[in-house]
Amino acid sequence: MIGYFKNIWVGFYSLLAGMAVTIRHFVKPIVTVQYPREKLAMSPSYRGHIELIIDPETKTHRCIACEMCARICPSQLISVEGVKVGKKKLPTKH
């Protein structure tokens, strides 16, 4: 008999706990951003897609094959190979 009332109490408590979570999320402010009109501010540490910077004078990229991008890539997808030409190191494969 005590097990029966215990099961009813546990069921009622879990129902109240679930409703509390639902009500808590129901009264929170909406965080939706209307994308084309509003844009989110990116954090300074955001690492988006990799883009080679083009030097306006030489009209080529500024990559010196230091392999720094390959070292910091979290998924290890970037590979850079370079050849030393004179005093400069130039990339041969990105």
Q: Which properties best describe this structure?
A:
2 strands, alpha+beta, 2 helices, single chain, 94 residues
Brief overview, please?
The chain is α+β, with helices and mostly antiparallel strands and 94 residues long.
Describe the structure.
The protein is an alpha+beta fold. The protein has one domain. The protein has two helices and two strands, in the order H-H-E-E. It has a two-stranded antiparallel sheet with strand order 1-2. It is elongated, with a radius of gyration of 28 Å. It starts with a helix and ends with a strand.
In sequence order, what are the helices and strands, one letter per element? HHEE
Structural class: alpha+beta
Strand order of the largest sheet: 1-2
Number of strands: 2
The helix tally amounts to 2
Low-confidence stretches: none
Summed over residues and divided by their number, the pLDDT gives a mean of 85
Distance between the termini: 73 Å
Strand content: 5-15%
Could you say how many structural domains there are in total? 1
Query: What is the radius of gyration computed over CA atoms, rounded to a whole number of angstroms?
Result: 28 Å
